[in-house]
Amino acid sequence: MSHRGLFITVEGGEGVGKSTNIDVIERWLQQRKIDYCRTREPGGTPLAESIRALLLDTEDGSVSPMAELLLMFAARAQHIQEVIEPALSQGKWVLCDRFTDATYAYQGGGRGMPMEWVSTLEALVQGALRPDITLLLDAPVEVGMSRAHKRGKLDRFEREEIAFFEKVRQTYMQRAAADPERFRVIDTNRGLDEIAAELEHILDNLEQSAHGA
Question: What pTM value is reported for the model?
C-alpha cells in the first residue's frame, strides 16, 4: 500500500507572484525526484477549465455572487474527483494554485457571501479533504495590483476595486491566523531569491515530517 501524497496549496491575492513561486516549488519537487501533479483552481479538468473561462470572462461581468460561489464548487467537485484524489491516493504530491481558501477570501471576504455558506459547501464537496500545507503569498494590495496591471489585460476579478482586494487579503490573513498549523505566510514584497530560500526551507521541513510520519 503506497503512502498517500501530500496536498500543497498556494494562495494569495492578485500580483503576489504565485506563478513564479509555484515554479520554484515545482523545481524543488523535481530535484527531490518527488512524483507530483501540478494543477490549478478553478480548473484542472476540461469541465472545470470551461467553468474557469465562464468565471473570468471580462466581456460579461454579470455573474451573480451566488452563481459564482456555486460554480467555484462545481469546478472543485470535478477537480477533486478527477485529479486531486486519484493523485493523492497514488502517493503523488499535489501542487495546486489556489483552493478553497480562495473561495473564503474572494467570495466570502470580497463578495460578502456568508462564510457559513462557504463552509457548508466545503463539507459537502470535499468531505474530509483539506490541504496538508497552504503557502499564503502576501504583499500589500497596491504592490500586487501594480504588478497585475503590468501583466496586461485584466480578468473579471482583477478589475475589482482596491477595497475588494483589501477584504480578500484581510480574509486570507484571518484564516492563516486561525489555522497556524496549516498555513505559512510568505512576504513576497522582497527579492525573489529570499522568497525562494524561505519556500525551500518550508518544503525541506515538510518532507522531513512526511518521512517521519
Answer: 0.93
Question: For 22-74, how does the pLDDT look when each residue is reduced to its tens digit (9 = 90+)?
Answer: 999 999 999 999 999 999 999 999 999 999 998 987 566 678 999 999 999 99
Proportion of the chain above pLDDT 70, given as a percent:
94
Query: What Rg, from alpha-carbon coordinates, does the chain have?
Result: 17
Q: What cell numbers appear for 154 in the block?
A: 485584466
Q: Which three cell numbers mark 212?
A: 517521519
Instruction: Indicate which CATH number applies to the domain containing 124.
Output: 3.40.50.300
Q: What domain range includes position 21?
A: 7-212
Domain presence at residue 21: yes
Tell me if 2 is assigned to some domain: no
